[in-house]
Amino acid sequence: MSARQGGKLRAGLIGLGAMGRNHARVLSGLDGVELVGIVDPIGDTNGLLRAPVLPDLSELLALDIDYAVVACPTALHEQVGLELAAHGVCALIEKPLAQSVEAATRLVEAFESRGLVAGVGHIERYNPALQNLRTRLEAGELGEVYQVVTRRQGPFPHRIADVGVVMDLATHDIDLTSWVTGQEYASVSARTVSRSGRLHEDMVAAVGVLADGTMVNHLVNWLSPLKERSTVITGEKGCFVADTLTADLTFYANAAIGTEWEALRAFRGVAEGDMIRYAIPKREPLLVEHERFRDAVEGKESDIVTLRQGLRTVEVAGTVLRSASDGSTITFDAPRAAPVEGVPIR
Question: How far apart are the first and last CA of the chain?
Answer without folding.
Answer: 34
